[in-house]
Design a protein that fits this description.
single chain; 4-stranded antiparallel beta sheet; 12 strands; 32% strand; alpha+beta; 5 helices; 2 domains; 234 residues; Polyamine Oxidase, Chain A, domain 2
């Protein structure tokens, strides 16, 4: 659904939550959640995906994990690894908080502000309506790198006063707060093309890191891979 943020920019968002988009696209597909693939390798029978004691075999695979995690899956000597070697990604810390009462407009960002982005999540379509508002704050790169290895409650305690200052709200109005650590949150140097693939087009690597820092870049990469597969009638 369309949603216009506080700057007047219109976006497409999931309703009643962002996961609604992927859930709708996954209808009728064999989607397996909570499955961590530990290793990927190929032989004459196809691509083998290893998960604990289980092994999946496929003719074609698309890998969209962050670039720094690809070598661990494919092996550091895989021929595609040098092609993506220049891609760089930075960490990011996120705070999700609920504030009671009326929240005024966000105060303007100052130079070198440790919070890079603040969004009123409860203003998106079909979110629950009550006397509280929910907010998502993204820390800047410098702040994220400095505090990356702290435990999550300590990260939340550091970010909460910054958010409250920006919202002109006291800490006593916070009813819920949780932090999340993204080790590969931002693309600081993209690949410059939507994907890379093996010469036989049975393995594709893609994601936001191919094009840029936004979720729309991940979508563009995925659509390009899908189009390439369709053109090969797969």
């Amino acid at each position: 659904m369309p949603w216009t943020d506080d700057k007047g920019v219109t976006w497409t968002v999931g309703s009643p939550g962002m996961s609604a988009i992927s859930k709708a696209m996954g209808v009728g597909l064999d989607v397996r959640l909570g499955t961590q693939i530990l290793k990927v390798n190929a032989n004459q029978s196809g691509w083998h995906l290893h998960y604990d004691e289980t092994e999946y075999v496929a003719t074609h695979i698309v890998v969209t994990v962050p670039k720094p995690q690809i070598a661990g899956l494919l092996g550091y000597t895989h021929p595609l690894i040098p092609q993506i070697a220049d891609v760089k990604m930075e960490p990011g810390l996120t705070l999700m908080a609920t504030v009671t009462g009326t929240t005024p407009s966000i105060t303007p960002f100052l130079p070198d502000d440790p919070l890079a982005l603040i969004t009123c999540d409860s203003s998106k379509p079909n979110r629950p309506l009550n006397e509280s508002s929910s907010w998502v704050a993204q820390a800047g790169t410098e702040f994220s790198v400095m505090h990356l290895e702290k435990n999550l409650p300590d990260i939340a305690a550091l970010m909460l006063p910054l958010l409250c200052e920006r919202l002109d709200a006291t800490l006593g109005r916070i009813t819920h707060a949780v932090a999340h650590r993204w080790r590969y949150s931002r693309v600081s140097k993209a690949l410059g093309q939507p994907f890379v693939s093996t010469s036989d087009q049975t393995l594709y690597l893609g994601g936001d890191w191919c094009i840029g820092p936004d979720i729309e870049d991940a979508w563009t990469s995925g659509m390009a891979i899908a189009q390439d597969l369709l053109e090969r009638e797969l």
